[in-house]
Amino acid sequence: MNNLIAKKFDNEVHLLAKSIPTRSSVEEVHECFKKLELYDNKRIIDWVQYYRQPYVLASLNKYISNMENEIWDHHGNNTNIAEAAHAQANREGKQLKLLTAIMRGRRLDERLFKIAEINDKFGVPYTRRNKSEIKRKAKAMSRKGK
């Protein structure tokens, strides 16, 4: 959406485009697109056509997405998760044969799932750094003692 917002358009165009993720129904989202199309500006219409594609539209609003609302709400509206996934993409190697890449990706997924499962079950943190409440209080007490 930033590409539309960065260009010089009427403030109402910006407000309509920025409101799409927060609309509370599919109908409201489509109404925003209809209002944007009324501007009869080629760049706006191109933008609307791109963002109306089902796979793009599903990433903009939780009521259009097939994702469960609880999951959508839990993960927020930023790209942190996608960026973290991208960081893992080449962890097992580059330019691998398809079957090798699938097998290594599966092995990585299983390892990451096991880490998450252990954290959820026993409270052991994902990272090697201990960020638990007890550890934070112990560090605070040691700082006060210095």
Question: Would you kindly provide a written description of the structure presented here, covering whatever features stand out?
Answer:
It is a single chain. Helices cover 64% and strands 0% of the residues. With 146 residues, the protein is mostly helical. The chain has 2 domains: 56 residues, no CATH class; 55 residues, no CATH class. Helix 2 runs antiparallel to helix 3. The N and C termini lie far apart (51 Å). The model has no long low-confidence stretch (mean pLDDT 79).
Give the mean pLDDT: 79
Strand content: under 5%
Taking Cα atoms only, what radius of gyration do you get, to the nearest Å? 22 Å
Major sheet attributes? none
Order of helices and strands: HHHHHHHHH
Distance between the termini: 51 Å
Query: What's the overall geometry?
Result: extended
Stretches where pLDDT is under 50 for at least 5 consecutive residues are none
Tell how many strands the DSSP assignment holds: 0
Number of helices: 9
Quick structural overview:
The protein is an all-alpha fold and 146 residues long. 64% of the residues lie in helices and 0% in strands.
List its traits.
mainly alpha
Q: Which helices and strands appear, and what pairs or packs with what?
A:
Layout: H1 2-6, H2 11-19, H3 26-37, H4 42-51, H5 54-57, H6 69-75, H7 80-88, H8 98-122, H9 133-145
Helix pairs in contact: 2-3
